[in-house]
Request: fold
Amino acid sequence: MTGNIVNENGKIIIDSEVIAQYAGHAALDCFGIVGMATISMTDGLAKLLKGNSIDQGINVTIDEQNDISIDFHIIIAYGVNIKTVVDNLIKTVKYQVEDYTSLNVKTINVFVEGVRVID
Reply:
């Protein structure tokens, strides 16, 4: 899936993986987010993703009207208010992705897959 922007100079095509990478880095800048998570199919446990694989914990879909929907699977820090962290994540990612792509972010769904104690 790609987002398309047409202007007087031509056409810009943005791949959903690029948006996922950007959204992942924006999310990691938010207080209380330890990282992205993936669910292991063998044991059903959430695993923390590190490094260049953060986009695997994010699903980006772009519809025909170029509206973006983002699903985050995250692990948060122990002791933080989940609602506050998620509200901050949604506001930050929505602003940064819309500023970065000039496309509308329609929905952001956040799935808290685990809690970690950070040192």
Notes: The mean pLDDT is 87. The chain has two helices and seven strands. The CA atoms of residues 7 and 37 lie 37 Å apart.
